[in-house]
Design goal:
single chain; 2 strands
Length: about 60
């Protein structure tokens, strides 16, 4: 068990490993050195919302 918090370089390394192995879609730094991590399955919801917006824009431009 760790007795000290990870260094910023360690955090960056772990985030890169998670991202490149497909376990992480996006990470956002927060206050007090906390992170919000986004799982790839949740990214599908974001993609669906984006595609829905594009479809609506296309429908409006066809009018």
């Amino acid at each position: 068990m760790r007795s000290s918090p990870p260094t910023p370089a360690e955090v960056d390394t772990w985030l890169a490993v998670l991202y490149h192995s497909g376990h992480l879609y996006h990470a956002e730094p927060g206050p007090d050195r906390t992170w919000t991590l986004h799982h790839p399955v949740l990214a599908m919801d974001r993609t669906q919302d984006f595609l829905h917006e594009v479809h609506q824009q296309d429908a409006e431009s066809d009018r």
